[in-house]
Amino acid sequence: MVVEEGSRVEVMEGNQQRSEVNILLLGARNVGKTALTVRFLTRRFIGEYGAIESIYSRVDRINGQEICINIWDSQQPGEKVSSISDKQLQWADGMILVYNICDRSSFSCVLQLLQLIRRRSRKPSPVPVVIVGNKRDLRDHRRVSGEEGRLLALTERCGFFEVSAAETYHGVLLVFHRLADLVREGRALRKSGARVRGIVRTVSAVFGRKRAE
Ligand SMILES: Nc1nc2c(ncn2[C@@H]2O[C@H](COP(=O)(O)OP(=O)(O)OP(=O)(O)O)[C@@H](O)[C@H]2O)c(=O)[nH]1
Which structural domain range is residue 38 located in? Predict the structure, then answer.
């Protein structure tokens, strides 16, 4: 098995390719980051989760391609959102920013996180982000409307979903798969952009030489 570091593509037996996508989950405390991660990994909702920050992996087939999704379920110490490390920012290919639809302050947290990510990211192109309003099953206690979430996502050029980790697996699956798709689309665009730039460089080098002769 060969692992190509830069593009994170594994060439497996039979020349099949498996790409890797690193997804970082961020959001205020108790919004359901672990619940979403566990739902995606096990299809189950357990209810209470230990406070262990970890990276988990799951291999899926999306649009016919095998893809290894690594998930970093971050822990927020207190209400502060300034605790994203450079390591996390560097590691992530895509991010899921979670808020609780019954908790306005967790929604404000998402905007702060977005600003923080844009300010501190050292990556050449913006990392795809999906905003998730969780705990949809508690709609009677809703404090953030779906329109507000959608508008924020639209203005910040992010994906958007409202889900309930407690109620359904399918909605959660869609979140992770959509983000994995966005990451792969971004990679494909960068790759074709680099190819075009290569051709332009070659053509200008040839014409430059001809003119000099
Ligand atoms: N009703 C309801 N409760 C949920 C849902 N998702 C998570 N919870 C509950 O919300 C609480 C917090 O969930 P966690 O997944 O631990 O939240 P977290 O964001 O990982 O929390 P921290 O690790 O402290 O940052 C738990 O009691 C969960 O059972 C949901 O969709 N609906």
Answer: 2-212
